């Protein structure tokens, strides 16, 4: 079953981690995450992972009484921002939680787990 792992981080921490010179702590966390990613790739459980652009450069598209409109920026001002995502293909939610726990341990930020609706999806 496939799961989407959504990585959230405080906006200030995200800004610091993506600065021209990330801190030693951020670099160590990223290295730990890359080792986990390689392990999951080798086990066949890793599908894809990407970091996301800063929310300040995002666009939100929504329906309004005037029609569909695109506006600059995120939907709302947030203290935490969606910073990354990963897709894994594992035996079930228990394994997804194990993997997410390792990411949280490495990066120190929360991970939201969502099943991906597909052929093997069960609510």
Written overview of the protein:
The protein has helices spanning 11-17, 24-43, 93-107, and strands at residues 2-10, 46-51, 59-64, 67-72, 80-89, 111-115. It has three helices and six strands; from the N terminus they run βααββββαβ. The termini are close together. The strands form two sheets. The chain has a four-stranded antiparallel beta sheet. A two-stranded antiparallel sheet has the order 3-4. Helix 2 (24-43) packs antiparallel against helix 3. With 123 residues, it is an alpha+beta fold. A hairpin with a 2-residue loop joins strand 3 (59-64) and strand 4. The mean pLDDT is 85. It has one domain: Alpha-Beta Plaits (2-Layer Sandwich), CATH 3.30.70.1060. The protein is 34% helix and 34% strand.
